[in-house]
Amino acid sequence: MPPHETDEPLVARHVLEFPGGYTRTTGPVIGRFLTELRAGRVVGVRTAEGRVLVPPLEYDPATGDAVTDEYVEVGPAGAVTAAAWVPEPRAGHPLDRPFAWALIRLDGADTALVHAVDAGNPKALRPGTRVWPVWRQNRTGHITDISHFAPEVTRIVSPVRPEYRIQAGGALRVFLDGVRRGVFLGGRCATCAKVYVPYRASCPECGGAMEEPVELPDTGTITTFAINNLPDPRAPEVPFVSAYILLDGADIPMIALVGGVPAHEVRQGMRVRAEWLPESERTLSMANVRWFTPTGEPDAEL
Amino acid sequence: MRDVAIVAFAQTRHTGHDTGLSETELILPVINEVKERTGLRRFGFTCSGSCDYLAGAPFSFVAALDALGAWPPISESHVEMDGAWALYEAWVRLQHGDVDSALVYGFGKSSLGDLRTIMTLQLDPYYLEPLGLDQLSVAALQAAALGADRAELDEIVRRSRADGRANPYALDLPAEIPDGFAVEPLKTCDIAPITDGAAAVVLAAGDLAARLCERPAHIRGIAHRTEPHYLGMRDLARSASAAEAARAAGAGKGPIEVAELHAQFAHEELILRRALELPGDTIVNPSGGPLAANPVMATGLIRLGEAARRIHDGTASRAVGHAASGPCLQHNLVTVLEA
């Protein structure tokens, strides 16, 4: 057969693998460490000079002398001495989510153990951070019997969610009745003549009684505002703008949502008007006002 | 001690990708080049450095012998590590006194596999390799232990790449330094590039050196030291073995004009500068160093060759070549060269 003539590179895939893996004898020192690991304990070996090597070596790295046969249980917790953050774990890594490699000096040890730490984020580990082993359920006597380490518990999260039944009575009921009709009700103080909205029974400044409710227009001016980036069930989207709006004829601004305009275009002095839900959908609630939206008028002086 | 000198050095124009050349095809031109430069066709001793795991084939150095002319039989040896250690073995062999010349070469194609994972196999098989601790993670742990200044590291990367672009054998890496972490705090730009290449050196003893080379680079001191393998047993921010090897080689006995350091990560240069006690006026890695070309298993030998080249061409009269091996600069070889 004639040879094939081609410009394509001749490429082949080649894998180096010993079926089933290599069988290695451990010797007494490493064997002891791995056996203790299978039992859920971490031990170090003491050198002639009294230092505790973890993981144990057959010799003292400082002198080359053989170690003693004294094994010391250490940890299980320890302190990180150095850490490196792996943003993209690889196939052979112990964890399939971003994690840290760390040198960990277990309590009672004089050397550091290298292992993975499930730290959550790269800033969570610094020198001195305390970590604890997370053990594998089925242990076989292998360095991976410790699945990984995890930072010591230093905080907990406690969900709190009591429920209440709130009844709107008195002045608030008056105001919400107005909102259902599509008007904002304020109150003028009989003593100091200031107009407050929402309607209230007494003047917060002088303590004087309020006159009958006064109807205010649904137009006003933004006095200040905030761009909110956390979701809120009452808000239409994120980010949303909440603003203090001084209704025309009122002396005190009222807080409400602003919409129908990009958040970064909202400004102090902007003229806005309430956007009401259709009358058939209204309830005794501020939700009747979808939000305040720009009127397009020139900005007002504040 | 016999006077032994580096009398010739050649290297491939290294590439960042597999050009399709086999290892034998890669080393043949550099061996022919040093033969031509010295006029020697046969050598008293031959020694090479390479790593079977790079090719994924056992005894891969044996096939590479085809580039030598190994018939009639030659006196030959191999180290399963960087060619710099092959040079050390050849230097020891020349001290025996019965042969006067040696050919040393190193080669590696790191493009064939995933170097980051392959280098995991250099770790001990009980405590570290089973964790899947890869090469970049190991280096990042050392970088974290050192806690180097970012601006200083960036400057090393910039300088290495600029010098590399001026070196026709090194890779043409962009001046623009990419951002982003490989393994934090190790940035992708702090890492030596994947490189294929080879290098060869000729050593000559006694009078032969002066006959083969106008200005031989005499080996005035050569020593290597190693440290415990396990990372947690040593202070990763320092290299005690590099310091001890430098002391044993007599690096501090005179001014060092040029130092070629086997720093495969930017932070390693800082650790080595301190270990070798290099003063600020020593020119470090004028070739661009490993950050500009890292043909694994030849990179260390190239450091010795580049240092020798500066003696040969008269730009330096005293230079240091350094090679490293093992995780986090575990094993260091320091060579002092003089005109």
TrEMBL record, chain A:
Domain ChsH2 rubredoxin-like zinc ribbon: 177-209
Name of the molecule in the record: DNA-binding protein
Family matches, as PANTHER family: BLR3430 PROTEIN (PTHR34075)
Domain ChsH2 C-terminal OB-fold: 71-136, 214-276
Residue ranges crossing the lipid bilayer per the database entry: none
InterPro entries xref list: ChsH2_C (IPR002878), ChsH2_Znr (IPR022002), NA-bd_OB-fold (IPR012340), Thioester_dehydratase-like (IPR052513)
One Pfam family per UniProt: zf-ChsH2
From TrEMBL, chain B:
Keyword match Transferase: yes
Gene3D superfamilies: 3.40.47.10
InterPro entries to which the protein is assigned, alphabetical: Thiolase-like
Entry coiled-coil feature ranges: none
Keyword rRNA-binding belongs to the record: no
Keywords noted in UniProt: Transferase
GO MF entry, a single one: acyltransferase activity
Bilayer-crossing regions: none
NCBIfam families per record: PRK07937.1
Name used for this protein in its record: Acetyl-CoA acetyltransferase
